Amino acid sequence: MSKYLRPEFRDLDSYVPGEQPTGRSFIKLNTNESPFPPSPKATEAAAQAASGLNLYCDPDNRELTKTMADYFGVPAECVLMTNGSDEILNFAFITFCHSSCPAVFADITYGFYKVFANVNGVPYETIPLRSDMTLDYRDYLGINKTIFIANPNAPTGLAISTGEVEEILKSNPDNAVIIDEAYVDFGGESCVPLTQKYDNLLVTQTFSKSRSMAGARLGMGIGSKKLIADLNTVKFSINPYNVNSMTGAAGIAAIKDDEYTRRNCAVITENREYTTEQLRKLGFELNNSSTNFVFAKHPKISGEDVYLRLREKGILVRHFTPDNIKDYNRISIGTREQMDALISVLREITEEIK
Question: CB count, 10 Å around CB of 73?
Fold first, then answer.
């Protein structure tokens, strides 16, 4: 590092993305990407938009925002489109957290929350999950802090109900509550309808998972008009042209081709249930996931060993090093052929320990 780096950033623990390998062909089950390409209508729309790249994109993302608002049945003023859901989450840390209003989130959850807090100089607290890795909503009642909950959670894959979220909202009326729904399309229950009832709720979603647009970087926030106005103040101060023209066009087309998305989600959900059943037959322990991944461990093989041996065979999964989850691997759900390849290698590994 150089001598010019701000002192408070010298010990910054950055977010570590999943491995994106080059030079070798892997079955990638490590970054929760969709195994399916985007809607053909989305790629066609992006290609058409490319001819206008000499001009700035619409800073208000008007057509995209209206399309998104119509899809969810909310006013356009209640929607903010962003460069991936990471951007709207960062905006939320900047906008709603400060020295007298710290952020709070689970101890096992999306790793970027801690990074956003540290980068923005925001104090934060973590609340432990239960021993079974479920989140107890009662831990968040009346805590008077800015609350971030990934629902369904990552990397555990577990969700809480909208009724439990509503209890959190009612008990923290003077604080923003951010519900991160990156994986909601694979079995979770969306809190978007609650945004029209509670003015302290912000729901974030992404096009990276269910809509097969991880490389396009498109996300959104949905909340009350005043909440979205607050976030827009930050957006226009930092990155007014935040959604490029090609991504915006692809996003509009993807939303209009919802049947394509639903069909792919159904296949991924079916493959998840199949994979869960097969892993349990091999002795793996895992909860019932509501996402496009499973979080699994084997009582007789370390998580790191499973990860490394799969990698040797050309299959990537995500291994985490913190002590409380180091026995686990997060396995993205791919095609049936990809999951069969995974299971075949895991069968070899488990047979060797018998």
Answer: 9
